[in-house]
Amino acid sequence: MTRTATRPAGSRASADRLARLLNLVPYLLARPGIEIAEAAGDLGVSERQLREDLELLWVCGLPGYGPGDLIDMAFDGDRVTITYDAGIDRPLRLTPDEALALVVALRMLVETPGVANREAVERALAKIENAAGDLVGAPVAVQLAGDTERAETLRATVERGRALRITYYTAARDETTERTIDPLRMLSVGGRAYVEAWCRRAEAVRMFRADRIDAVTELDEPAVVPPQARAHDLTGGVFRPAPDLPLITLRIGRGERWITEYYPCERVEAGEGDRWLVSLRVTDLGWARRFVLGLGPEVTVVAPAELAEQVRAQAVAALDAYASPAPASPEPAPAP
Predict the structure, then answer these.
(1) Is 73 exposed, middle or buried (0-12, 13-18, 19+ CB in 10 A)?
(2) 42 and 31 in contact (C-beta within 8 Å)?
(3) Which of 2, 7, 99, 228 is surrounded by the fewest CB atoms within 10 Å?
(4) What's the gap between Cα 325 and its chain centre?
(5) Where in the chain is the domain with CATH 1.10.10.10?
(6) Three-class DSSP category at 82
(7) Per-residue pLDDT for 8 more than 70?
(8) What CATH number was assigned to the domain covering residues 3-84?
(9) Residue 4 DSSP code
(10) Is 165 in contact with 180 (CB distance < 8 Å)?
(11) How many CA atoms lie within 13 A of 262 on its CB side?
(12) 133 touches 94 (CB < 8 A)
């Protein structure tokens, strides 16, 4: 994979810890009574990290998770011994349903944009499919939400490391623009496929939704990402509220409370009756105007005044359009 497949440090740390935990029980079973300092040296971690791993292992085990199902161990000073391994020393035997579930999960992982070490996942999938036998032919198709033909084309282009020229629709401003981008990675967030790239037009890293890219052309030149470009931390979602973005305040009814769960809000306060006051950051007031108009009559703009006026003006224009009679259709000419 190219640099576009690099994982965040947190993801690498989690993957490293998972691998260490999977190896830790067999390691300790083969060395009963080993000193924690010696084990930490063999595993290449600090004593503190090893103790944290052992505490985590203590609450791991077989489904049911009662006292007789969890991994257990005994400490004698600075020495540790596994006293119950929860069956981790036995070869894994999958039932047909478990094997099929694992095959489906790995197929989905292969289709996920931005997955690092795709080749390793494909090798593991091939081995399990070979062991599963006839289950491989089960009528199961895996496709992620938002994973369209356009997303697949983008994924292949990103992996080749080429620059792209795209025609992109920006919903926040309701406009279509031409851009040349240098992709960093493909990823899936909230069931939608995105390409994260250095945008030469904006001179910054931007996220582009695959289903809003109306046209894409792969250029002959390689993607060149400036040294200052950094991939975004998307643990909180694609939209990242910033203090310099417009802050709007709405008075909402019970039917619109879903807003507080779907959008990052800075303030939510109970108002009169069942009304709530909700404040949130938006990309611009144009998007906010369309957002409010789509919510219905139980929403009132409290601030800013500019947004309230925009909503009022567009609502009045819409009502005027409905009030105006449609032009009469011309009568057909008489037959000769």
Answers:
(1) middle
(2) no
(3) 228
(4) 48
(5) 3-84
(6) strand
(7) no
(8) 1.10.10.10
(9) G
(10) yes
(11) 5
(12) no
In this structure, what token pair is assigned to residue 5? 């497949």
pLDDT in tens, 109-144: 776 655 556 777 778 777 777 776 665 555 555 555
Residue 285, number of CB atoms within 10 A of its CB: 17
Do 219 and 165 meet the contact criterion of CB atoms below 8 Å apart?
yes
CA 131, 132, 134, 138 dihedral sign is negative
Average pLDDT over residues 20-39: 87
Structure tokens at 116: 């690092």
Alpha helices for 2-148 (secondary structure H): 9-29, 36-43, 47-57, 96-111, 118-132
- CATH 2.30.30 boundaries in the chain: 149-222
Q: In whole angstroms, what is the distance from residue 289 CA to residue 309 CA?
A: 10
Q: Classify domain 149-222 at the CATH topology level.
A: SH3 type barrels. (2.30.30)
Instruction: Tell me the backbone φ, ψ of residue 91, rounded to 5 degrees.
Output: -60, 145
Is the peptide bond preceding residue 327 cis, with omega within 30 degrees of 0?
no
264, 234 contact by CB (below 8 A): no
CA–CA distance, 22 with 55 (Å, rounded to integer):
14
Please tell me the distance from the alpha carbon of residue 160 to that of residue 37, in angstroms, as a whole number.
46
The candidate with the shortest Cα–Cα distance to 207, out of 111, 305, 114, is 114
- Tokens describing residue 134: 């006839």
DSSP string, 202-226: TTEEEEEEGGGEEEEEEEEEEP---
User: Which residue from 117, 109, 99, 125 is spatially nearest to 19, judged by alpha carbons?
Assistant: 117
Please give the Cα distance from 248 to 286 (Å, whole number). 12
| The residue to which tokens 């950051």 are assigned | 281
Token pair of 127 as six digits = 């081995």
Write out the two tokens for 66.
């009662």
Alpha-carbon distances of 303 from 121, 193, 214, 281, rounded to whole Å: 51, 34, 35, 12
Q: What number of residues does the chain have?
A: 336
Mean pLDDT of 147-162: 76
3-state secondary structure of 289: helix
User: What is d(CA 303, CA 34) in angstroms, rounded to the nearest whole number?
Assistant: 65
